[in-house]
Amino acid sequence: MVWKSFRPLLLCTLVVGVGLLADVRAMAAPETARATIVRAILTSDDAQKHTIINSLIGQGDEAIREIFTAWRQDNLYIYTAPNGAKIPVELTGDKDADGTQAAVRVDSGEPLKDASGQPLRLVAKQLTAVEHDASLRRVMKNVVDLLDLGSPLPAKRLRAVQTIGFAQKADKLPVLEARTGIETDTEIKKELREAIALIHLADPDDGVKIKALVVLQELHNSSSYDLINALRAKAEKDNKPAVTAAAHSALLAIDHHRSVVKFFGTLFRGLSAGSVLLVVALGLAITFGLMGVINMAHGEMITVGAYATYITQNVFGAGMNFTLPFIKIAIHLPGLHLTGWAYQLYFLVAIPIGFLSAALVGIALERSVIRFLYRRPLESLLATFGVSLILQQMFKLTFGSNNVNVDSPVYLSSNWTVFDVTFDWNRVFVIGFAVVIVFGVWLALTKTPLGLLIRCVMQNRMMASCMGVRTERVNMLTFGLGSGLAGLAGVFVTQLGTVGPSMGQEYIVDSFMTVVVGGVGSIFGTVVSALGIGLTDQSLQQILLNPVLGKILVLLAIILFLQWRPTGLFSARSRSLD
Amino acid sequence: MSLPATDRPYFRSRHLEFIVVGVLLLLLTVIFPLLNAHGLLSDFTITLWGKYLCYALLAISVDLLWGYTGLLSLGQALFFSLGGYMFGMYLMLQIGMLGSYAKSGQNPNGLPDFMVFLGHTFLPPFWRPFQSFGFSVLMVFVIPGLLALAFGFLAFRSRIKGVYFSILTQALTYGAALMFFRNDFTMGGNNGFTDFKLILGHSLVDNDTGPATMRGLFIASALVLLTVCLFCHWLNGTKFGLVRQAIRDGENRVLFSGYATANFKLFVFVVAAFIAAVGGALFVPQAGIINPDQMTPDKSIEAVVWVAVGGRGTLIGPIIGAISINALRSWATQAYPDSWLIILGLIFLLVVLFLPGGMVSLPGKIKALRKSQGKPVEPAVARA
Amino acid sequence: MSHPILTVEDVSKTYDGFKAISDLNFYLFEGELRTVIGPNGAGKSTFFDLITGRAKPDKGKIEFGFEPDSHDLTDLNEYEINRLGIGRKFQTPSVYVEHTVWDNLVLSLKGPRGVFASLFKRQSSTDRDRIADLLKLIRLDGKRDWKAGLLAHGEKQWLEIGMLLAQDSKVLLVDEPAAGMSDEETHRTGDLLISLAGKHSIIVIEHDMTFVKQIARDNPVTVLHQGHVLCEGKFEEVQSDPKVREVYLGRGKHGTR
Prior knowledge:
The complex is a heterotrimer.
Chain A: H1 2-28, H2 33-42, H3 46-54, H4 62-72, E1 76-80, E2 86-92, E3 100-105, E4 121-123, E5 128-129, H5 134-145, H6 154-167, H7 173-182, H8 186-201, H9 206-219, H10 225-237, H11 241-290, H12 298-316, E6 319-324, E7 329-334, H13 340-344, H14 346-368, H15 377-399, H16 410-413, E8 415-418, E9 421-424, H17 425-447, H18 449-459, H19 461-466, H20 471-493, H21 505-518, H22 523-544, H23 547-564
Antiparallel strand pairs in A: 1-2, 1-5, 2-3, 3-4, 6-7, 8-9
Chain B: H1 14-37, H2 43-69, H3 76-95, H4 100-103, H5 113-117, H6 133-157, H7 162-181, E1 193-194, E2 198-199, E3 202-203, H8 210-237, H9 239-256, H10 261-287, E4 289-290, H11 297-310, H12 316-335, H13 340-354, H14 362-371
Antiparallel strand pairs in B: 1-4, 2-3
Chain C: E1 4-15, E2 18-29, E3 33-37, H1 44-52, E4 59-64, E5 71-72, H2 78-84, E6 86-89, H3 101-108, H4 115-120, H5 125-137, H6 153-167, E7 171-175, H7 183-196, E8 201-205, H8 209-216, E9 221-225, E10 228-233, H9 235-240, H10 242-249
Parallel strand pairs in C: 3-8, 3-9, 6-7, 7-8
Antiparallel strand pairs in C: 1-2, 1-4, 4-5, 9-10
Helix pairs in contact in C: 3-6, 5-6, 7-8
């Protein structure tokens, strides 16, 4: 899973690298942007000045923006060197007592130096100011506006193209077309086509409009929807059926694309919600489904995993202090003071720690309470509810009643967009992790000697113990496994929700429902029902635009589902009377 | 489901138990208000005990299902709150022009304050009939009853039982709480209903007349509790009582005796909803507030624990359990605010592990302990 | 004895791939006392489960009663079937352990089974007389106030037989009534069943061959094997059938006791 999360980063580095290379190439070209500007400044003919400045269009050098800004703000002056050479400079920084300022050469961006190599400080009044008038400012603004089009950063170029397209100004067409000729990035090429088409939409000629609409239909980009819609309304009013029809079909194409994106987005979110539910419920499927124990403190096992993550993070960082309640033992955990990648690794380390700590708490619970309550499921419900109250209060007294902050490691906080569908890395990670865990649990239960023992003890405790199986130990380990899985779930709900003393309660009802719907005792059933419930929940949220109502409907749906299959999707049948 | 001999309740005869409960309640109904009227018992105590009695009703509804029928419902707090909300709607409309928005002239129609806050200008239609006391009381029974009927019908028809029933009722409660937390449900959102002023024209807050109203509510609660006990006692003596207990001990066998167990369970479920709801309706004017926190699954489980602590399957157990745990809470949340939940949790644990018969089985246990002359009694937990 | 009161035709039932009953055909005539024997796993208890609605057959029909008042039992559930007049005694005695012996019989006594009837109908003196008679018959009148759970295994068997009689069903399905009884009690059970035949139609499942011999007499015996009828006939015929001998001998010396 981890290599996948590195990928966007690698990609990014690569792109930036290529961009830099392109920049270097541009500087090696016959004339730099700075040199061009110097030429423009030194030209006295206004028309020629405009032509030279306009020649900068399409270049992405940020220096252009800086120099033009200085120009407009009257900070450019012409310094006449002792040898008579005219050197345009920018005066920057504060004036000192003599009124001198630092001078930076426009042609190089370096400080102006005298013959001995000392930086020169100049007084503005003694220099010739570089003039500008309204028409010159307009020309400069146009260049700056189009500056980003030539930016080495693709994201910047993309945004520039979009902005220009939406402005629908016909005078920008030549620039866009020129850019189309040299642009290499396919994404931006597509955007250029769209921008050109959008500008054509504003063309008075209907034929041009219709051609543009055909292009937009083909691109079916959601962002052009409003402009097309406005055009259609106008065309309808002006009684131009051909344009109306073309606009209509373009809109249809966009609608279609939107619903496809929405569908896959919902599918993805449903899968990830289902995966969270799955990991949370999987532990329960073992303690409840296989062992028949109603562990109301299962939610607190999740909390243990989440706080374990929190502690791990702090140990990787600045360390932490806390006091155990009642016994009043102050605990100081020294921090490793890691930064950068080493610190980011804390999350991977937290995964086994979360599992182990929850498993240990689970084993302690099994030894002290649950082992007395096998075969008394309703009583185990009450006793573990008591445990849940105690644990929640303990968390509160130890870590405070407010939510604590768990950072997202970089490799989980970015996202990835494919065909307009956004895939958040943390969600992708949850899905992948769920697959790994389910596979692991399946392996553990079916392919290991422990799994065999677990299954045989869970089917018939008495018989197993008569056959010499140490049922006590198997019970303990099974319960530890179930609790540890809850701890794992806790590790990653830190990435999706809040971490606080009562966080476990948010998951407990849902996970019980998941196990019941899946069919108690069936791991496979739990998988199917978790994904089913996750997808239904997300779809209902999409349809109703109301998360709470969606949740209530899911609960109702579950109750009705149990009418149809009272024992869940997959369940073991028994032939005994009770 | 049955308890071992040493965990049996103290009262061998259910008639004797009923007489004890009845006499105690009658005494309570008379003595507490008398003491209060003569200034020997504070108004605070009367209101507090009035609330305990309402909790006792909730506990009886749990016991009727769990102790007598073997259905562990985690939805009783929902029915309790629903009853409370229905009666709360009446109380809210009684506030009328006495509310704080009306006083500052921002509420010419006398809407409940939370509606003004949410920008409503007129009363939603379903609120209107709740101006009437009679209608509101009717709804205290109808709404929880209908919900219990619908849910119970579905659950029992598909033979959902045991822990599945518990989990499903828990989900039902959870879903309902989510709904009541929403503002656009126009039931007060997470603040619920509060700031009540009048009930049947009597002030709840007035310094002079308020205590008398509270006394009246206390007496009403005690009498309702007595009536419910009488009903339960009667039910225990009918053939219905036999069938119900048989369902608890072995439902499948009852089917083969020709009883449609689903109908019996449905009847108990609806009756229990009624009892919880009337408890909630009496609770709200005495507590002065009802909000969705009261209907969470946690509250239901807590009520189950009152029953477990008192002694399930008995008449007196839930009453003792509800009163003692809540009295303990009143004290401990003051004395040990940090530890109260831990104390409560420990009580749950210890009762389930070491005293499955609850407090009513204590005398029997002690007797057994004496008889065995110090020989350790086999712990209840060792029983498979 | 022309039309069967209970018709089982082409019935199959599979549990997780295991064929408990396969293409079973079985007819019970009014007033008949039928004994069903068969080795373990022959599907005897499943056969009762299918009749009483505890399990639903995968295919086939089970009909009860005579035209025009006949019922397809596969559409009905347990209590509906019981109310039609089919009573069952389970293999392991199933009594209400927390109820007294008396209350066990009250619960089983023939009469309305509805919620409101059970709330408001008082016990009549005829009801009490009937229960008292039954208690004498099953010899538990001395223990009428005992909790049923405290009875010995054989007494529980008797109590369950008493409960079956209290229901006064047309068809009695009796699963291993003699298990846990002394020889004398077994014999008495046999006599009781014989005396009930004629008024009731009875199917008895039994392993104890002495007992089978006692109650079979001239009545037909059905041998179940692997979920279908291996053979049917008088006890002696069945006993000498080579197929039957093979089935039993292949599994030990059960049948030749």
